[in-house]
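Suppose you are handed a protein chain with no further information: no name, no annotation, nothing but its sequence. What can you learn? This example shows the usual starting point.
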Amino acid sequence: MVSPAARSSGRKQGPAPLLAALAIFLFAGALPAAATELRDPDEYFFTQTFGDLREEIAVAREEGKMGMLLFFKADACSYCQHMLEKVFTSPDVQDWYRERFVSIAVDIHGDVELTDFDGITLPSKVFSDHRKVFLTPVVAFIDLDGNEIYRHLGMVRTPAEMLLLGEYIEGRHYFDTEYRTYARQKGMQEKGVLVTPGEDTE
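A reasonable first move is to predict its three-dimensional structure. Written in structure tokens, the prediction is:
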């Protein structure tokens, strides 16, 4: 005689356990995708360069870009590291900037040689000194003639803020509006969070 427990274990399973198993599988499969959403900035944001800034500007001009972005950084700078890990890894930031700028990282304490826009070859630390960059991070925007048109001092906290900074440059708002004013008008709080303009926040 077969016990009720044995009979019940031999019955066909209903759809509920199968659906639950499928849900777990799909959820688990989604985790790696979320983890790989961020992309390496060395590959997707910064331009692979031999250090000749004149050559890079020429390439930018040929490709119809706006100019060059120089990211001045230091190895011991935690704010720089934040941008490298949390801002420049954003696919939205990478795609937007690569379409419009040649982007190059410059170590203000480094010895990697750069050829500046006057054709003079200097270690990156001397190049930074000549540009009067002594603290990091600094994001400098260079036009197609090699002239610096805007310099952002300090950390850019979020991808949204980095995109807003790009919009500020693309629209040439630096001619008549300070970036902080522009950012507030666009709903940017001091901590780099976008909110509805005029919304009361703490």
